[in-house]
Amino acid sequence: MELVLDNVSKAYGSITALDAISFSVGPGELVALVGPNGSGKSTLIKAIATIHNTTGGTITIDGKDIREIDPVDLAVLLGYVPQSFSYTLYSTVFETVLMGRRRYIKWSVSDEELSRVQRSLDALEMGDLAGKYINELSGGERQKVFIARALAQDPEVFLFDEPTSALDIRYQIEVMETMRRITREQNSSMIIAVHDLNLAYRYADAVVFLNKGKMAGYGKPQDILTPDCIRSVYGVDSFVVENECGRFIVPFRARYPG
Amino acid sequence: MKDEGILLTDTREPDAAPPATVHTLYNAGSARSTALIVFLLLLVIIAAIFSAGIGTVSISPEDTILAVAHACATSLQNFLHTYLPAVGNWYDSIPYTVPSPSNPQAELIVVGFRLPRIFLAILTGISLAVAGAVMQGLLRNPLVSPFTLGLSSAAAFGAAVAIVIGPGILGGLVVIGSNSFIIILAFLFGWLSMLLVYGISRARGVNQATLILSGVVIGYIFSAGLTFLQYITNNEKLRDLVVWLMGGMWGASWSAVLLLIPLTLIPFILLERMSWDLNALSAGDDVAKNLGINVNRLRLSGLMISTFAASCCLAFTGIIGFIGLMGPHICRMIIGNDHRYLIPSAGLMGAAILLISDTVARTIMSPVEIPVGVIMYLIGGVFFLFLIMRARGRGLY
Question: Which of A222, B168, B328, B343 has the most crowded CB, counting CB atoms within 10 A?
């Protein structure tokens, strides 16, 4: 399953939100979208999820335009987890995860579907919380519930919009490791918007660097996330530390014009 | 996090007892929900039998049941003799006849007056509470109900317009056509209010509080119209309009009930079929779309159907508040938010609340009737506060 973006753009009136975005994600590959606030990460993810329309270019899965795929079938191909959640009527954890199986549920819920929910929760070590209401959980636990729902949906391509932004450092690492494991074990594709450059650096196979809706870089993390590139996009000075644990980006100073 | 865990493959030992937390939770939830529905169904039936017996003239439960059975048997006999004489003759040959009730007036009082009213209360309760539950799910707002969106006032206004101008327009047809004319106008105005609310909800940057605020304001506008009609119309109709404004079951008749039975049950079935999509919508429009749901179509058709069901009943009862909001919420607190169970239990809860309130309202100061709202807000409100106190700490709200 190969997801290809070719020259994708989106404009709201005269404002260009996305401009000529081209990249591809193959099976077993994890791509990180990085860039400053407002650079178009969420817009791009929503465009791939067909929540937003695009105004130019094509997005294809195995050569087929996603807008020509029936939304019901697309649910099997693409699993989307948004950045923010505005729940007003709350469900329990397992009911939320069960929604990932909506495509396969006609009326009553089979034991097989419930087992899948159980396995998705177990994969994120959330089994104990199955009966809790989701607003009884911490922000990090809730984020994991939504990841579990995407797991239960079992799509070919996962789309995550900043899944780690609400999480503490331990959960950030756990979630990213889980993501990478899913990518490898299920040979699925994953596109994740992240703010933390080090998470992108450590876990992504490729990085799409966005700046004001344009691509500022696309390639392997070590080639793209360089101090020069970071300075030109973020206006922040940084250096790279290398030790036995790996390579780390350390941003240390914002640059002001003049 | 374990490194060796294989993600979506079941790694449990085949012989080991399954932890089955999700299975047990799901089954326990289903059992609890089913129990609530059965309980409410029995409550409504018992309340109906009880309600048919009490009033200015008290009738014993035996006489109540005999009155209904006797009326059914007689109507069936007449029906068969008119349309299926062969079956009618066979029917007459059955050696058993339903005895007449010991109180000679029982049949007239129970079947002629009280039953239509009981049915109207049940049907209105179902329609309003089901509409409330569905609207809350569709608009993802727990404060939404036919009343808070202005639908109740708008539909009652439509019905009042039909009453005031109906005879002028329909002329001699009024006797035949008045009920459907009232329903059509109630629905049109109800739908107008829903279109306004729906349009506002789709506008960019509108938050949930604005939605409710506009609904309440729309309600006031139509209430103002209703009050105005009351001033410009003649005395005969005045009483009717006051009734519409206060809300009550005075408009009950067998013709209304027979019309409302399909107009309540068909929307209920259609809305119940949307349960899973409503469940998925609770995660937000974007996620629901990603799960393959056509959110706009779901929202539009759901609002249309629930508005229709609620308007039809409101056309006969006037403005009834409370149950559309509280019926669903009381059930949410007991069984949670699975719409498959929530929609039927909310409907039965609405029926039970409205029927019991109406029975109390017409008997407590007998022979004087007090408006059903007085009792309903009192009983339902106290019960709801009790549930809120009990539900503290649970994550439902």
Answer: B328
Classified as helix, coil or strand, B15 is coil
Other residues' Cβ atoms within 10 Å of the Cβ of residue A242: 8
DSSP state of A68: G
Residue percentage of chain B with pLDDT more than 70 = 86
Secondary structure of chain B: what % helix, strand, coil (to 5)?
75, 0, 25
Per-residue model confidence (pLDDT) at position B2: 40
pLDDT digits (tens, 9 = 90+) for A32-69: 999 888 888 889 999 999 888 888 889 999 888 988 88
Q: A29: distance to nearest CA of chain B, Å?
A: 17
* Residue numbers in A near B397 (CB within 8 A): 90
Same domain, residue pair A44 and A88: yes
Interface of A with B in 36-65 (CB under 8 A): 46, 49-51
- The DSSP string of B116-170 is HHHHHHHHHHHHHHHHHHHHHHHHT-TT--TTTTTHHHHHHHHHHHHHHHHHHHH
Residue from B142, B115, B76, B151 nearest A135 by CA: B142
The ipTM, to two decimals, is 0.86
- The whole model's pTM is what? 0.85
A232 and A119 co-located in one domain:
no
- Whether residue B297 lies within 8 A of chain A, CB to CB, comes out as no
Superfamily grouping for domain B105-391:
ABC transporter involved in vitamin B12 uptake, BtuC (1.10.3470.10)
Nearest residue of A to residue B28 by CA position?
Answer: A131
Query: Which one of B142, B286, B395 has the shortest CB-CB distance to A51?
Result: B286
| Same-domain pairing of A151 and A255 | no
Which of B287, B338, B392 to probe the A interface (max A CBs under 10 A)? B287
Cβ neighbours, 10 Å, residue B102: 11
Please indicate, yes or no, whether residues A50 and A130 belong to a single structural domain of this protein. yes
